[in-house]
Structure formats: C-alpha cells, structure tokens
Hints:
Blueprint: E1 3-9, E2 15-21, H1 25-34, E3 38-44, H2 60-75, H3 80-90, H4 94-108, H5 113-118, H6 126-138, H7 141-187, H8 196-201, H9 206-240, H10 243-255, H11 260-280, H12 285-295, H13 299-313, H14 319-325, H15 330-342, H16 345-400
Antiparallel strand pairs: 1-2, 1-3
Helix pairs in contact: 2-3, 2-7, 3-4, 6-7, 6-12, 7-16, 9-16, 10-11, 11-12, 11-16, 12-13, 13-14, 14-15, 15-16
Amino acid sequence: MPEFEYIARTMTGEQVIGVTTAASQRDAINNLSGRQLFPITVKAQKVKGAAFSFGGGINSQVMGTFYNQLSSLIRGGVPLLRSIAILREQTSSSKLKEVLEDVNRRIEDGESLGDAFSRHPSVFSDIGINMTKAGGEGGFLDDALSRVGKFTEEQADLKSRTIGALAYPVMLGAIGTIVITVLLVFFVPMFGQMFEMLRAKGGMPWATEALLTFSGWLRSYFFYMVAVLVGVVVGMRVYFGTAEGKRTMDVIKFKVPLFGSINKNLAVARFCRVLGTLLANGVPIVKSLQISSQSAGNIVLSEAILGATENIKSGESLAPPLVKSGHFPKTVTEMIAVAEESNSLDTVLVDIAENLEKRTSQRLDLAVKMIEPMMLLTMAGIILFVVVALLLPIMNMSRAL
C-alpha cells in the first residue's frame, strides 16, 4: 500500500509533518481528518520500484496535448476507457504509454480517473490530479481536462521562454567563471617570482598583493573547495527533498530578490484560475478552496488558503484572511472582496489570474533582460581588476628604471 507524506495542522494550530499509509490520496486525507488533523499538503512518496512509479516526469508539452486530446474525446462521446486506449496507442512517449496502461487497468478495477492519476505523481501534476477529481465528481470532466491542458501548455511555454532567455546569461557566467579560474590558478602565479623584488622592498601595490594571495590560496585549496561544493549540493538536494525542506524552499522562493514577487504572483494566479474554474462549474466553495490550495504549487500559500477555508466554514468572507496572510497583492484581495459582494467571484478570479499572468510574464522578461548586462559588468569588472593588478607593478618598475 502506498505511503503519503503530509503536512497538517492540529486543532490548536500546531504544524505536524509525517507519513501515513493509505490506498489513495483521498483515503490519506480522510485518515488525517479522523485523527483531528487538517491537511495542508498530501503527496505520494516517490519510492524506488513502487508499482505506481514509472521513472521521471514527462515533457509538459506532451502532457498538455494529452489532457486536451482526452478532453476532446470525452466531449465527443467516446467512452473513457476507449479514449485512454486510443491515446495510449497514439503517444510516442514510452513512459506515458506505460502509465496509461496502468491507469486503464485501475479504472477497469473501479477507480476514478482522478484516483488513477494520483497513483503517478511524477507524471500527473497536483493541479491535473485535483482538477480531474473535481471534474469527475462535478460532472464537468471534459471542461476540467481542457482547462488543465491549457494551463499545462501555458506553463510549459513560460518555462521554455524563461530557459531560452536564461541560456545566454548562464553560458556567459559559466565561461566567465572558467576563464577567471584559469587566470587565477595558472596565469597569475607566473608573475609571482617577477614581483618578489617589489614585495621585499614593500613596494607591492595592495591590489597585486591581494590578487597573488588569493591566487595562492585558490591553488592550495582548489580541490577541497570542489569537494565541499559537491557535498553542499548533495546535502541540499537531500534536505529539500524532505517535507520540511520543501516548505523551506517555498519560503525562499517568495523571498529571493528580483524573482520572489514573480514566483508569488504566478502562484496566486494559479490559485485564482483553479478556484474560479471550480466555482464556475458549481463546486462548493469550501471544497474548491481545498482543491485550489494544492494547485498553488507553494506550501506557504496553501497554508494561507486553508486558513481562509476555516473562515468560510464559520460563515465569514474570503478576502480578510487572505489580506492577513500577507501573501496576496492588495489589488487581488480588493477585487475578491468586491466580487464576493456582487456574487461574481468565479469570473473575477479568472480575470485576476489572466491579468496577473500577463503582468508577471512581462516582469519576468524584464528581469531576465537585466541579468545579461549585470553579468557582463561583473565579469568585466573582475577581469579588469586582474589585469590592472598585474600591470601596476610593471608600470611601477618602468618608472623606477
């Protein structure tokens, strides 16, 4: 039976992190509720060799196409099992073919499509699983799959544009680092003996002295530094793979300079789009909030949304607890408050998501464009310092002669 990592809160508000065993994600949530715990996130553990894991993830564009095609087949009246069989035969991805074969088998055994998807968390995203479950329960499965497909393709497009824009700065940084390291480790020490006379007389410029000292230190401890760096990277990967580490990473994502607000706005936009879609299709607001909280893709934001859910259960409005959390832009909470009064929350939330995504995409493009000149100036400054530090003693010796 699969195991699920969870982050939950007790009746007193204390956070609890742990692992529970259940037949499905829904059963795991029910188990936690029975223990008087309020789930924040519940995710299947990635166990090597487990029956529901078929290696790594699949390209987002492939998954977006799959969701859209499945939506079209269901909307056209093709039975669910037949639709999945058709897509399994057509897909060029061997991983997706294996996953769909397992999904088909589970549906034949009586599981819902959403529960079958939840068996493969490395392939189907949280938003895909939760929207599929909501669509199956609410009778709008084709619309839910269509929206997931559109969302997945938009996210894939945003990711590809970001990677494409960052390719040049990353390449520039890598080449610059290699060049500077070669200069300091192999080239600068060649001038050490030449400057010994100046060093003995105390006439060595401070910049040259600092450069030679750092170069010697780098040559002596270079391999130790590489070993420490590798150890830090491995340690961080292990830590951030845990439930506590994932929460810490989500906090960092919101606070990192330049990109923190971009990450926050994108998470808020995902939440607003999913919540608006669920409400438009008649899903009750409490259940819609529980589903959309997991689709935000950030544990910190999920906690704030689930806190707002408790307010809704008490008969209060949605906007005040979102304002109190401090994670939602003021314009968003103001629009939500007005929409609640005018009973147009579903349409307003989708409009908020579209506006946020548009503005954030523009800010992301601008931020990436700013990185290039900043890196160029940084690399040029370092190389200029190295050159000047090496030329100063030569110029001093020329004056002395």
